[in-house]
Write a structure and sequence with these properties.
The structure is a single chain. The protein is of the alpha+beta class. The chain has ten helices and four strands. Strands 1-2-4-3 form a four-stranded antiparallel β-sheet, with helices on both faces.
C-alpha cells in the first residue's frame, strides 16, 4: 500500500528532491567521464532539432561494442527516425523524440551457440537481458557524451516489454527475440529534470550477508516518488501510473512466457 502524502509531506519531499546531488569525492570533481555519467537524466521533452546521421551512428556503434557474456552479443536494435517510426506505428515518437531504438534480447541469430541453452530457457533469457541492457546503457551514455538526451521506456507508446506480443507481431520477431525497452533520443527542450529519488549507498551495499533496506527509508523514498510524479504531472498521479502498469502486466506475462518458453 502506498503511503499517504499530505501537503507538508509533499513540500518536504520536493525540497529533498531539489537538494539532492550526486556524491563525488573532491579529487574526482573534474573527471569528464564521471561527470557525464552522473549528469545523465531521463528526459521527456525534446526539441525539433534533428540528430545528425554521424552522431546517431556513433551512438549505435557504442551499443555494438558493449560488453556481453562470452561475447555472445545477444541483442538486436530496431532503429527508427521520426519518419520511419510514424510509418511503422502510426504516431510520433514519444515526447517528440527525433530518433528511437527498440532494444531487443536476441537468442536467435547465434543458434549454434544458443543450442547450448536449449534445455535452460531461463538462463538463455537472462543472458540476453543482461547483454542487451548493457548495450542499451552504453548507447544511453554515449548519447549523453555527445550532447544528446534520452529516456528508456518500458510502456509509453506500446514499445516496451509490457507490449511484447504487439511488438512481436509488428516487427515480425522470430522465436528467441523479445523486446526489452525503447530508447528515445533527442536534444532536450528546456532544463534537465532534477535527480530522481535514489536510495542511499548504505542501504543497497553489504559485505557478508544481505540485510535489505530500512522500511523507514523505503517509505521516505515512496513519498518522494509520489510527490515528484505529482509535481511533474499535476493532472495525474503515481498511483494512476502504477495502475496502468498493473492493467498490462498480466498480458505481458502471458506474451513473454510464450516468447521465452515457447508455450501458451
Amino acid at each position: 500500500m502506498l503511503p499517504k502524502v499530505n501537503l507538508l509531506d509533499f513540500i518536504r519531499a520536493i525540497a529533498r528532491i531539489l537538494k539532492a546531488k550526486p556524491h563525488v569525492p573532491p579529487t574526482l570533481q573534474d573527471n569528464p567521464l564521471l561527470e557525464t555519467i552522473l549528469r545523465r537524466r531521463s528526459v521527456r521533452s525534446f526539441s525539433q532539432r534533428e540528430i545528425p546521421d554521424d552522431v546517431f551512428a556513433a551512438i549505435l556503434e557504442a551499443g555494438r561494442l558493449a560488453p556481453s557474456t562470452v561475447n555472445l552479443q545477444t541483442w538486436a536494435f530496431a532503429v527508427f527516425t521520426a519518419e520511419s517510426w510514424k510509418q511503422c506505428f502510426g504516431r510520433p515518437i514519444p515526447f517528440s523524440g527525433q530518433r528511437a531504438v527498440i532494444v531487443l534480447g536476441d537468442a536467435h541469430w547465434n543458434k549454434p551457440i544458443a543450442e547450448m541453452f536449449a534445455d535452460s530457457p531461463l538462463v538463455s533469457y537472462t543472458v540476453a537481458v543482461i547483454n542487451a541492457s548493457l548495450a542499451a546503457m552504453t548507447m544511453n551514455l554515449a548519447a549523453e557524451a555527445l550532447g544528446i538526451s534520452s529516456v528508456m521506456l518500458s510502456e509509453t507508446g506500446r514499445t516496451g516489454f509490457l507490449d511484447a506480443g504487439y511488438l512481436k507481431e509488428k516487427l515480425a520477431l522470430p522465436d528467441g527475440v523479445f523486446p526489452l525497452m525503447t530508447i528515445v533520443f533527442g536534444y532536450a527542450k528546456g532544463p534537465y529534470p532534477p535527480m530522481p529519488p535514489k536510495l542511499p549507498l548504505d542501504q543497497i551495499c553489504f559485505t557478508s550477508s544481505y540485510r535489505g533496506v530500512d522500511p523507514a527509508v523505503v517509505e521516505e523514498w515512496l513519498k518522494q516518488m509520489i510527490a515528484g510524479y505529482k509535481a511533474a504531472y499535476p493532472l495525474s498521479s503515481f498511483e494512476r501510473q502504477l495502475n496502468i502498469y498493473r492493467a498490462k502486466i498480466h498480458q505481458a506475462e502471458q506474451d513473454l512466457t510464450q516468447m521465452v518458453f515457447h508455450r501458451g
